[in-house]
Amino acid sequence: MSLTYTAGSLVAARGREWVVLPESVPDMLVLRPLGGSEDDVAAVFPGFEDVRPAKFAAPSPDDLGDQRAAGLLRTALRIGFRSGAGPFRSLASIAVEPRAYQLVPLLMALRQRTVRLLISDDVGIGKTVEAGLIAKELLAQGEAVRLAVLCSPALAEQWQTELRAKFGIDAELVLASTVSRLERGLELGQSLFDRHPFTIISTDFIKSTRHREDFLRHCPDLVVVDEAHTCVATDDAAQAGGSSSNQLRYELLQKISADADRHLLLLTATPHSGKESAFRNLLGLVRPELATLDLETPAGRAKLAEHFVARKRADVRDYLTREDGLADDSLAERTAFPSDRWTKDEPYKLTPAYRALLDDAIGYAKDRVEAAGEQGRREARIAWWSVIALLRSMVSSPAAAAQTLNTRSESAAARTAHEADLLGAPVAADSADNDRLEGMDVAPGAAEAEDAGARLRELAERAEKLVGPAEDAKLKALIRHLKKLLADGYQPIVFCRYIPTAEYLAEQLKGKLGQQTKIAAVTGTLSPQQRLERIEQLAAESADDSGDSGDVAARRVLVATDCLSEGVNLQHHFDAVIHYDLAWNPTRHDQREGRVDRYGQKRDQVRVITMYGEDNGIDGKVLEVLFKKHRQIKKDLGISVSVPDETASGVTDAVVEWLLLHGRQGSQETLFDLDGHQESFDRIAREWTSAAEREKTSRSKYAQRAIHPEEVAREVAAVRTALGSTEEVRAFVLEALRDLDAVVRDPRDGTGDFTAQVGGTPAGLRDAFAATLGSRLVEEDRRIPFRSSPAVARGEAALVRTDPAIGALASYVLDSALDANVHGPRPARRCGVVTTDAVTIRTTLLLVRYRFHLTLPSRTGERELVAEDARLLAYEGLPSRARWLDGDAAAALLTARAGANTHEQMARNQITRALDGLPDLTDHLTEYGRTLAADLDASHRRVRKANEEIVRGLKVVPQEPADVLGVYVYLPQQPAAAVSPATVPVSTASGAEA
After folding, report:
1. Which DSSP letter does residue 64 get?
2. In this structure, is the dihedral angle defined by the CA atoms of residues 775, 778, 779 and 781, taken in order, positive or negative?
3. Of 53, 106, 664, 950, which has the fewest CB atoms closer than 10 Å, so is most exposed?
């Protein structure tokens, strides 16, 4: 008959010791190796395999370490925890270390029985991480069992990567391109939303009736909606019964949110955008009563604050400081956002040949619009969109112009004027809310028949002759700007509107920026995955050329279309943006710049250059009316407000109309002097300013006040006590790498960063680093950067406990400490004796591991969990009459330094006495464990205080006995005396240094 093992108990099987996990049943044990990770979990069947209770072995007096052994072992142990003893069940198991401010939405969520949040933090603050933290915690607690993320197709793979890499959530992509494959694997009558518990779903795909209804029938209990502002409609649009994408998505979300028990997270950086009814509809999705709440009253704002968090970078750049109401700055956290964005508008003038071509194109466009106007409204709209396509491509590049002139217009197939607008607008305009960027970078057509006609063919042939910097002044100016940026050490991205332009630039730039500059183009011709691979390849190639010494700076230039303006974070590889093609909506520029100007950007100042043609008749006025107004609002109010599509299209339509009437030269001075235009633009300016004021009011009036910084500080302190601080991790990595024979270079420049070459470390550690950082770095013994910032690029390690490379190092240190037979250096040991002036009486330090069995009730039933904690306990004198020190005094012993050598036999005798006295300490260690269990119980109740169901049934039981991992004796240093030659001092150092 097999024994029954409780969760958290130790068993011996397969030649090693394991911790029993809560998923175990009598005939199948789910086990994690002692000191192992979740990746090492295994199932063992007691009926077929030898499984017996295990007692954690006491340390051996024959395996002594030096004065640093206790600290290294403690940190290695805490880094390895995957279910720490803090107030959150998931933080120890994720591969990202959240910033303190990112815990605010999590704390808000845990106070709600059904989580309903609108997270509206500014671009680059980390809404994806905040949503991931909530999702992981709800799943860990059993409050949710299935998850769906609704996002645009361009963001789907980014979400999949973030959830998998950072939170261990393996979600399936449900897109138009994947659904056929997924449905082939279903059983008869099975829904793919039942088959796959975690999904990332394209909002375009889910709009189809069949898939929408299937999703609603099998909708998960936790739904995250990204870019939620694109999923609500204004009241006038809803009343009109329109079939717009926004309206369809809004109807879907209304049905999703109708289930009052479903958790719902809405993410958007622009919740208001000046549209009051859309903002109210967004709030109504969170809670129906919020849509009609009186937000002018304190009670109304307090109610909203329970569900709404919106912060700018300035709010969180320095957090948990005295300015936030805390007593001191001991928990202060500074987040490295770029503090400045250097911007400059750079004009260029057309060459005579290009100017003549553009004048002839404008003349053709004018004739075509006039002729079409006499043929009917359908013909007029087709001609209009064809003309806009022609003019936009003409000012983009000779390559885009030639392709557009030889391609049939998308709107030419329209049967009605309305259909012509539907076909022509998406490819000609730059919508702020366009969630379907795929395919939008294809050069549009200008021909209205399959045969372009002699006049267009002649223009196309002339455009093809203008390639290269000799006749293309815009390209020549770009080369000049790029050389300056590269010389200043910047790595720029050049954004274009069309695929032909991007490919043309990538080809033309080769050899013109220096032989060591690597250039690549990323356009919509590549799949999202191929785009990421090309970017990583470009970064790797430029890093290869920079050399291992780092003396030559890596030089790289990425040319991209707007397929990269959303969904791909580029801050690790690039720090400057050039807008080669002026977008017709400033919001698109914000999106482009946001790819590099975000958390994790190493540059304090990001550079932005906007190129415009001062004599092409279009760019100058678009820049003056749209962009300068946009910048002024941002400067005055401190926030960026999206430009409504109707505003942007109204301006650009007026520019094109005036250009056709007066030609390229006439448009430069008198556009807004014409009767009718000035009044129209004044109205647009007033509406835009009003929208901006409403957006600022909503952010200041409804800012997050439900969670005070003191509450965040308390939980941050609890997490750091259980899992360790960033400073502790950095010190551990430095010491451990040096002891393991790595070549460490610490510049001590105030950043906290350093590099290490690990070619000389033990083979087991090299293999682990190769798996996490890349085999090439390790095999070629390159310098591996270790960064103080948690946001790092591939091939770099972040100095946080959740980084895979740090975890690999900690695992090696812990395993080698527990196994005295490991060959090579062993930085940590389980015993040590130190003679020091830090104590005046014999003092013993214990490193004790506690395990706790948690019973956590949830809506889906009780969840059994195991939590771990590592504590330092110290006492003075003999074990039988121990005088226990407080926690601070125990921790202070880690910094004690040896003042004299300790004789080998004396050290062995002292540690043997301490080990023999461990039974006398059992009562104290047991009582201390019960105190920790009570503290853990209290912390869970504290952060979930509004959720009575969980608080009522919570139970925390310590697993006894506790494990004594380390015993370290500190002897008081005697007054200096002559040392007998017969006395042989012993160095108790391990590894490379004493």
Report:
1. E
2. positive
3. 53
Q: Give 611-622 pLDDT, tens digit per residue.
A: 999 888 788 878
Q: Which of 567, 511, 498, 436 is nearest to 159 (CA)?
A: 567
Mean pLDDT of the chain: 83
Specify the 3-state DSSP secondary structure of 875.
strand
Closest CA to 483 of 459, 510, 452, 514: 514
Q: Lowest-pLDDT range, 258-272, 590-604, 627-641?
A: 627-641
pLDDT of residue 279: 84
Residues 328, 319: Cα–Cα separation, whole Å: 12
846 beta partners: 873, 967
The CA distances from residue 797 to 417, 772, 793, 805, in Å, are: 57, 9, 8, 6
Distance from C-alpha of 426 to C-alpha of 130, rounded to nearest angstrom: 33
Q: How many CB atoms lie within 10 A of CB 853?
A: 20
Residues in the chain: 994
When pLDDT is averaged across residues 899-923 and rounded to a whole number, the result is: 92
**Do 917 and 879 touch, CB atoms closer than 8 A?**
yes
Reading across the β-sheet that carries 754-757, which strands appear in turn?
A: 743-745, 754-757, 784-787, 797-798
Task: Name, in order, each residue with C-beta under 8 angstroms of 321's C-beta and a sequence gap of 6 or more.
Answer: 329, 332
- Which is it for strands 843-856 and 955-972: parallel, antiparallel or unpaired? antiparallel
Q: Sort residue 563 into left (φ over 0), alpha (ψ -120 to 50) or beta.
A: alpha
Cα distances from 526 to residues 57, 393, 530, 561, 816, in angstroms, run: 57, 21, 6, 11, 47
Predicted confidence (pLDDT) per residue in 817-826, tens digit? 988 888 889 9
With beta carbons less than 8 A apart as the criterion, state whether 284 and 290 touch: yes
Q: Angle CA(818)–CA(850)–CA(30) in degrees, nearest 5?
A: 75
Q: How far is CA 137 from CA 134, 169, 819, 865, 947, in A?
A: 5, 11, 34, 13, 15
- Residue 378 pLDDT > 80, yes or no? no
**Nearest in space to 197 (alpha carbons), one of 131, 134, 147, 162:** 147
Q: Please name the amino acid found at residue 159.
A: W
Report d(CA 405, CA 410) in Å as an integer: 13
Dmax over CA atoms of the chain, in Å, equals 115
pLDDT at 940: 85
The DSSP secondary-structure symbol of 60 reads P
Whole-angstrom distance between the N-terminal and C-terminal Cα of the chain? 52
